[in-house]
Amino acid sequence: FKVEAGSGNVMPLHPSSLTACEDMVSLGDMNNAALLHNLRVRYARDDIYTRAGSILISVNPFKTLSIYGPERMAEAKNADAKTLQELAPHVDALAEAAFRGMLNEQKQQALLISGESGAGKTEAVKACLRCIVSRSSDAARGGASEAVARAKYVEDCIMQANPLLEA
Question: For residue 20, with 0-12 CB atoms within 10 Å meaning exposed, 13-18 middle and 19 or more buried, which class applies?
Answer without folding.
Answer: middle
